[in-house]
Amino acid sequence: MKTAIVGFMLVCLIYPTIIKHRHQYYLALALFVLGLLFLVLGEVFSSQFVLSFTEGGVLNRVEVGRFWRVCHVIDGLLDIMVVILLVLASGGLSIRELAGNIGRAYEVMRRGETEKEVIIPLTGQQPKVKEEEEETVPQYTIDTGTGGEAEKKKADDGGSIPVE
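The structure corresponding to this sequence follows.
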């Protein structure tokens, strides 16, 4: 996983137009370095690191201390955060937008699509006709002024432009 993260970060350095939010990219870089620091600290300060070999020199058993395990768990969580931040930085999303998109996707998976399915009948069958509800929107008629002064002026005018 670390190889893929480093590879993507290097590609982003070569092609900086990939990154839309620089601050998220730099935060991902800082968290990645922090994860490497935890790996190094776990290796250096693990107190119960014991290797036992068989007579042929084959590794038989490895026991590691709790601090080493904690450091690796923290490194794994930081790697997950780095991947999410790199997706956000390259996609141009904020954390709130990503959370909204994931929430809507979860609702679609849970309840199904919001659009109704269109069922095409088999050949020879007639589709069911739905009765449409009558619209209850009131309709108003605008008085166009027929027979009024506006039409008389148009008839007298002859369509020419008055010149004064």
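The two ends are 85 Å apart (CA to CA).
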